[in-house]
TrEMBL record:
Location, primary (coarse class): membrane
Organism: Planotetraspora phitsanulokensis
Domain Peptidase S49: 97-247, 347-497
Family designation: Belongs to the peptidase S49 family.
Subcellular location(s) per record: Membrane
Keywords tagged on the record: Hydrolase, Membrane, Protease, Serine protease
Membrane-crossing segments per the record: none
Top-level taxon: Bacteria
Protein's name according to its UniProt entry: Signal peptide peptidase SppA
GO terms for biological process, alphabetical: signal peptide processing
């Protein structure tokens, strides 16, 4: 065979592949990443995970692509948050309604453990297959809270913390030894609301009565044969049997994210074309740049990074609307306020700003969202938590037990006010409470202004209470229920743009390019992250080890993720 013939045969094979039937594939073993990585380390750690926006884009395109015959998804491994699961369920149900075959496969839903949310995702598919040795851990929703006040007291640690108001329970684990009535009330409603959503979704997708699904939840977990008998699973099959059934007639397998990127390469925005900006804000909110600490912890939403991204989108004449994707439990009040300001400035510049909430957008996460034109959340998104807490651990007794002696020289009556060695004085505690009152008043006032509510009504909805997206919509804190695709469609509509208007993601540079120093604060690379060591002093490390959030006063309680 000469070289020309070999080339011709290769070209022919590629041509056949381009026209062959496709079965899209998605492996959720490693979970999904919410948005683009904010730093080189994050890029490295997320290499094996598909990106949610790529998956949603690919499934949207697949609905009208005659080459795509179906979708097979492996569910299991790393847990996925409820909000993200609901986004995937919606995309799968639309693909299913378009006549495409949808198959979910799992080795197990919990391995005789909790697997309610993974099974909830699987129930959206036309067929659900389970490995014969697997289980279905459909057991409902449990939200647990640990209280360490008494344990810390034995060690000689006491927390002086103030909160606004009774539902702001993030600090309760340090100040209480059991749930307060408001704490129990709000937590019970979250569990009830999420259970209602999961029950309704499974019932509709599996053609079961809601009451029957509720009964099954109380009877779980299920062994494989029991799950088949109950109508939760269609059959018990190994992976090879599932794929032999799904991939027929010479169809090619292709990962959804690869399929989406192939389509994107064919339709890049023209330099002069109008676009929608998509800004991702993920993680606890802090001052400075987004990124992560090599000493531990996940990603963080840095105010410098997000403000610069919003500012860049606002100043780009080709950007006609902005979708701000928020997935954050909150953090620094000052950082949240800086981001809020950029949202307001974008609106004042005549660019609609649409918020798309992920698994959680509460406390500081709600603060950065409340100034937008429209807020879109999933029914299971945790949001609200309009409140504040602050204070410090007092470890003087503990240090004394360890034989540690602390001496200080200071100038100023309150110079050592934030030292963890001693308690606040009465005058200092009064200043702490004035600070908390000011933040809460500012928070409530800006919610009232942004949402068109009276301060009295806003206070009723605030007081630190956490809401599901479904309940928040009923209360007026959220405008619509949906995902990032719905937010993008709404942005196009508000900006008067056609449905095929392209999306430009901010920040726009590759993570490795973010290492170069910027020329100024207006340089586009100033919006980008740096890998750096955090200034973690001994007390910050101690607070982190004890579970106290280290990113500021606007935080959600530690159980916020429902998986």
């Amino acid at each position: 065979m000469d070289a020309t013939q070999a080339i011709m045969e290769t070209v022919d094979r590629l041509r056949q592949r381009r026209t062959a039937a496709l079965v899209l594939e998605l492996d959720l073993t490693e979970g999904l990443s919410e948005g683009p990585p904010s730093d080189p380390l994050g890029a490295l750690l997320s290499m094996r995970r598909a990106r949610l926006t790529d998956v949603l884009s690919g499934l949207r395109r697949a609905r009208t692509d005659p080459r795509v015959k179906g979708l097979v998804v492996k569910i299991g491994g790393n847990p996925i948050g409820l909000g993200m699961v609901q986004e995937l369920r919606t995309a799968v149900l639309k693909l299913r309604a378009a006549g495409k075959r949808t198959v979910a496969f799992a080795e197990t839903f919990g391995e005789f453990g909790a697997g309610t949310v993974p099974y909830y995702l699987a129930s959206a598919f036309e067929k659900v297959y389970l490995q014969p040795s697997g289980d279905v851990g459909l057991t409902g929703i449990a939200l647990e809270q640990r209280f360490v006040r008494d344990a810390l007291a034995k060690a000689g640690v006491e927390y002086q913390l103030g909160q606004r108001h009774e539902y702001k329970t993030a600090a309760n684990m340090f100040t209480q030894n059991r749930m307060t009535e408001p704490h129990r009330e709000s937590t019970a409603r979250i569990a009830e609301s999420v259970t209602e959503q999961i029950t309704a979704g499974i019932a509709e997708a599996r053609s079961l009565e809601p009451q029957r699904v509720r009964e099954l939840i109380d009877q779980g977990p299920f062994l494989g044969p029991e799950a088949v008998e109950a109508g939760l699973v269609d059959a018990l099959k190994y992976r090879d049997e599932v794929y032999a059934e799904v991939v027929e007639d010479g169809a090619h397998l292709m990962y959804v994210s690869r399929y989406a990127k192939t389509a994107l390469a064919k339709r890049l925005p023209h330099p002069g074309e109008n676009v929608i900006a998509l800004v991702h804000g993920t993680g606890a909110i802090r001052l400075g740049r987004s990124g992560r600490s090599p000493l531990g912890g996940g990603g963080a939403m840095g105010s410098d990074t997000i403000c610069a991204a919003l500012r860049s989108a606002r100043r780009d004449d080709k950007v006609k609307a902005i979708v701000f994707r928020v997935d954050s439990p909150g953090g620094s009040y000052v950082a949240s306020d800086a981001i809020w300001r950029e949202v307001v400035l974008a609106r004042q510049a005549g660019k609609p700003v649409i918020i798309s909430m992920g698994d959680v957008a509460a406390s500081g996460g709600y603060f950065v969202a409340m100034g937008a034109d429209v807020i879109v959340a999933q029914p299971g998104t945790l949001t609200g938590s309009i409140g504040v807490f602050g204070g410090k651990p007092v470890v003087g007794e503990l240090l004394g037990k360890l034989g540690v002696v602390t001496e200080a020289v200071s100038e100023g009556a309150n110079a050592g006010m934030f030292s963890p060695v001693r308690e606040f004085s009465d005058a200092q505690w009064a200043r702490v409470n004035s600070w908390l009152d000011r933040i809460y008043d500012d928070f409530v006032g800006k919610v009232a202004q942004g949402r068109g509510l009276t301060r009295e009504r806003t206070h009723e909805l605030a007081r630190g209470r956490v809401w599901t997206g479904a309940d928040a919509r009923e209360a007026g804190l959220v405008d619509e229920l949906g995902g990032v695709e719905d937010a993008l469609s709404l942005a196009r509509k508000k900006a008067g743009l056609p449905k095929d208007t392209q999306v430009r993601t901010y920040p726009r540079m590759h993570p490795l390019e973010r290492l170069r120093p910027p020329e100024s604060s207006e340089d586009r690379s100033a919006a980008l992250a740096r890998v750096r060591l955090e200034a973690w002093g001994p007390i910050a490390r101690l607070a982190g080890e004890l579970g106290l959030p280290t990113y500021g006063p606007l935080m959600l309680p530690g159980w916020w993720t429902i998986r």
